[in-house]
Amino acid sequence: MRNGNRGFERQPSFTDEQKPMPLGDKCNYLCPYFRCNKRALLVQVKYAKGNPYKVGYCRWVGDVCITGECQYAYCEKRALLPGNKCAFAINKKNERDNEIEKELEKEDYDDKMKEIISKKFGKKGLDVL
């Protein structure tokens, strides 16, 4: 398809929305929403024993980026909490805790069902179920 003066239409570079990338419950400088107010963040690729890894480097200070501990760090989604915590990670952690609690409730239910069935059939210690 032709577009007036420029030739072909430009396709969007990505269609999916980017996802936050916290490390545990801490903010990560590799997250697509992490920004430096001084525009000093530089992500370098270093090699250790032939394996590449990324390191955040602060051009303003001249040292490794300290992520959320820096006074100039911020999150585009406003998820950076005091103490270098990520709100997205805390929400995920709470969701996982809720799922674990639901599973524990199911296990309690299964134990009660085993007791009822064993009483009904007169077998003690019914391990088949």
Based on DSSP secondary structure assignment, what is the total number of beta strands?
Answer: 9
**What is the succession of H and E elements?**
EEEEEEEEEH
- Straight-line N-to-C gap: 64 Å
Number of separate helices: 1
Report the mean per-residue pLDDT as an integer: 77
State the oligomer. single chain
What summary fits the major beta sheet?
A: 3 strands, antiparallel
Largest sheet: spatial strand order: 4-5-6
What coarse outline follows from CA principal-axis ratios?
elongated
Return the domain count.
1
Quote the beta fraction.
15-25%
Structural class of the helix and strand makeup? alpha+beta
Return Rg in Å.
26 Å
Helix content: 25-40%
Spans where pLDDT lies below 50 across 5 or more residues: none
